[in-house]
Amino acid sequence: MRILAIETSCDETSLALVDNGRTVVSMDTASQELYHRAFGGVVPEIAARRHLEVFYPTLKACLTKGVAASLSAEKTIQNASSSNKQHNYNHKEYNLKALSSHRDAYLTVLKNTIDAIAVTTHPGLIGSLFVGTNAAKSLAYLLEKPLIGVSHLKAHFYSLVMTGKITFPYLGLLVSGGHTILALVKTPLELEVLGSTLDDACGECFDKIARALELPYPGGAAIEELARTGDETYFTYPIFRPQQNKLSRYRYAFSYSGLKTAVIHNSPRYLTTPYHTDFNWDTLKPHIAASFQKAALTQLVEQTLAAARELGITQIGICGGVAANKYLKTLFNKAHLPKKKNNLAPANLTYVTPPLELCTDNAAMIGGIAYHYYLAGAVCENIFDLTPTAKSFKRDLVL
Ligand code: ADP
Ligand code: MG
Predict the structure, then answer these.
(1) Dihedral of alpha carbons 47, 50, 56, 57, sign
(2) Does pTM top 0.85 for this prediction?
(3) Distance CA 156, CA 193 (A)
(4) Domains of the chain and CATH, by start
(5) 153-206 pLDDT, tens digit each
(6) Measured between alpha carbons, how far is residue 13 from residues 54, 209, 225 in Å?
(7) Residue nearest to ligand 1 atom 26, measured at CA
(8) What is the distance in A from the centroid of ligand 1 to the CA of 262?
């Protein structure tokens, strides 16, 4: 079964063709990073407009990569880059006339080769979600294909299974610019949220600290780089540690707003050697980055390993943009060394991180999990009922 998947929940426009929940036939992702850099974060209005501009070029590139070979009208379709790397389209360079002349060929390809259309419906920026869901509805109506609305969060956790290196059940840690969630993943659609952030997301905190250190947005990778030349013991920033009371529903929670305030406004107070009087924010930047990174990532490791121990789970999957951080894996490995006293986790732990294009927002994971929605009968009876929602939080986290 081949699914055309659409992801536009935040600042990546991504389309993919995915077979049977596993095989990514093709994917094309247009990143908006450069458009938001000047503002130090994603601007919802710009994100929505940009999705609208690049949706069809991205669809075209995805189809050209995926099915050009099987096309009778093959010659009429221009070659697109064969790489799956993210890129930025300049809509002025994009020739709309060329698209309309090839429109029939593309529609024929879609009609003949795909079995369903899937789209992220929640959570996300509402303007961005509108673009993807409206496009999905139009295509489903035009091509007379079933439409599947997908949770962006469940899809992120499912991206771990698509690596082929992890099996159910596993502990999933989703750490991105918008989310910090620890879940027990039992099946593709059945997840138990063990903990999530009480305030800011981990990646968001990296971005805010990066801004204070005058590093470009998004700042996670730049902080990791700067931290390499710093001393992580220079500052003892607070590490969020929830009470390990079995009755508390917050015992695997995360929190980043306190750490953010400590670093940006009160760094001198957290000097490990307090008699330092020559506090100079500029020369201390590498130490600030290294000490912050350690504090920010340690809570992820501690809460995850505590849950692994309590539940007796030995497979841990880490996804979302922050999973790209190499020091995170180092910390996990250090924390569960068998010889260590007060060992936090069971032995034989394995860690899985998807490749970067499956870690950040992407349509491959949407097409992957949509197959399981389809098998479970979760298909829209009437495509006009499909409604995007910005939030996944009610009182508790709803995936
Ligand atoms: P979202 O779409 O929710 O913003 P993504 O999955 O696209 O999240 O990931 C982007 C986030 O990941 C940003 O907040 C970025 O700073 C963070 N990030 C990327 N690389 C690293 C890294 N090496 N270390 C820490 N954080 C990182
Ligand atoms: Mg993103």
Answers:
(1) negative
(2) yes
(3) 14
(4) 2-155+358-385 (3.30.420.40), 165-353 (3.30.420.40)
(5) 999 999 999 999 999 999 999 999 999 999 999 999 999 999 999 999 999 999
(6) 7, 26, 27
(7) 220
(8) 21
